C-alpha cells in the first residue's frame, strides 16, 4: 500500500487556515463599517436634534446656493416641508418670493459668501399665508483646511418686534414738542448734528433732513451757546 503524502495534508490545512483568516478579516471589516455607520447615524441624530431646537432660522447651503438642510423653525415659519425646499436653489424657496428684488439680492449675497465674505443685512421674508416678517439675515462661509469654501450657513433672526419698537420710538421722537437730537461732539469747539426732531429743526429755522451732518456753527449758533450745550 502507498503511504499518504503528509505534505499534501499540510498544504490543505494551510489553505483552510488561510480561508478562515480571510473570512475573519472580512467579518472584522464589516463590523468596523457597521460601527462607523452607527456612530455616524448617532452623530446625525444629535446634530438634527440640536439643529431643530434653535429658535433662529438656519439653513445649510452648498457654495452655489443649493439648500442642503433647513431647521424646523424655518420650515414651520414658512409652512413648508423638507421635500419642498431641500435640494433646490435657496432663492427660489417660498421665504424669498415676496419680490424679485429680494431674490436677486439673496443671489448676490450667496455669490459674495461663495468668495469667502461674511454677508449680513435686514430683509423681509414670507411666512405662512403670505404673512411677512423682518429678519436680521446673514450668510457665513465655512472653509475646509485648504481655505476653500465648503458650505454656507444662512441664519435669520426675527426682529419684527424690534422694528415695531423702533417705529414707535421714532414716531415719539419726531412728533415730540420738546427739542430732541442725537449729536456728536467735535473736539471742544462744535456739535455735529446726527439727527434732530421737528421741534429742534424749527429752532434752527430748517427741516430735520437739512440739519443732518451739519455743525451747529454752520447753522448760525453762537460759540457761547455751543459751549453751553457742550458743557451740559
Any overview of this molecule?
With 232 residues, this protein is α+β, with helices and mostly antiparallel strands. It is 47% helix and 23% strand. The protein contains eight helices and eight strands, in the order αββαααβββαββααβα. The protein has helices at 6-53, 72-78, 82-85, 100-114, 160-175, 198-203, 208-211, 223-231; strands at 57-61, 67-70, 119-126, 132-143, 149-158, 181-186, 190-196, 214-215. Strand 4 (132-143) and strand 5 form a beta hairpin. The chain is elongated.
Give me the strand/helix succession. Answer: HEEHHHEEEHEEHHEH
By secondary-structure content and strand pairing, the structural class works out as alpha+beta
Q: Give the tally of β-strands.
A: 8
Helix content: 40-55%
- Taken as a percent bin, the fraction of beta residues is 15-25%
In angstroms, what separates the terminal alpha carbons? 126 Å
> How does the major sheet shape up?
5 strands, antiparallel
Count the DSSP helices. Answer: 8
Task: Strand order, main sheet: write it out.
Answer: 2-1-5-4-3
Shape: elongated
Spans of 5+ residues with little confidence (pLDDT < 50)?
Answer: 34-43
- State mean pLDDT (0 to 100 scale): 81
The value of Rg in angstroms is 33 Å
Write the layout of secondary structure elements.
Layout: H1 6-53, E1 57-61, E2 67-70, H2 72-78, H3 82-85, H4 100-114, E3 119-126, E4 132-143, E5 149-158, H5 160-175, E6 181-186, E7 190-196, H6 198-203, H7 208-211, E8 214-215, H8 223-231
Antiparallel strand pairs: 1-2, 1-5, 3-4, 4-5, 6-7, 7-8
Amino acid at each position: 500500500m502507498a503511504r499518504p503524502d503528509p505534505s499534501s495534508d499540510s498544504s490543505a490545512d494551510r489553505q483552510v487556515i488561510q480561508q478562515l483568516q480571510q473570512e475573519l478579516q472580512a467579518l472584522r471589516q464589516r463590523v468596523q463599517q457597521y460601527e462607523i455607520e452607527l456612530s455616524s447615524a448617532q452623530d446625525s441624530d444629535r446634530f438634527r436634534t440640536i439643529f431643530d431646537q434653535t429658535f433662529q432660522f438656519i439653513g445649510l447651503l452648498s457654495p452655489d446656493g443649493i439648500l442642503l438642510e433647513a431647521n424646523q423653525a424655518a420650515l414651520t415659519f414658512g409652512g413648508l416641508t423638507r421635500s419642498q425646499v431641500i435640494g433646490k436653489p435657496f432663492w427660489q424657496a417660498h421665504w424669498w418670493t415676496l419680490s424679485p428684488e429680494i431674490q436677486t439680492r439673496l443671489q448676490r449675497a450667496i455669490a459674495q459668501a461663495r468668495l469667502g465674505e461674511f454677508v449680513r443685512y435686514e430683509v423681509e421674508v414670507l411666512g405662512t399665508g403670505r404673512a411677512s416678517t423682518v429678519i436680521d439675515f446673514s450668510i457665513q462661509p465655512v472653509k475646509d483646511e485648504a481655505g476653500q469654501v465648503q458650505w454656507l450657513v444662512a441664519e435669520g433672526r426675527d426682529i419684527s418686534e424690534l422694528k415695531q419698537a423702533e417705529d414707535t420710538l421714532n414716531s415719539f421722537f419726531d412728533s415730540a414738542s420738546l427739542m430732541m437730537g442725537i449729536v456728536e461732539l467735535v473736539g471742544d469747539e462744535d456739535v455735529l448734528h446726527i439727527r434732530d426732531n421737528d421741534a429742534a429743526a424749527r429752532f434752527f429755522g430748517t427741516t430735520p433732513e437739512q440739519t443732518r451732518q451739519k455743525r451747529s456753527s454752520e447753522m448760525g449758533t453762537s460759540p457761547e451757546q455751543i459751549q453751553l450745550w457742550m458743557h451740559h
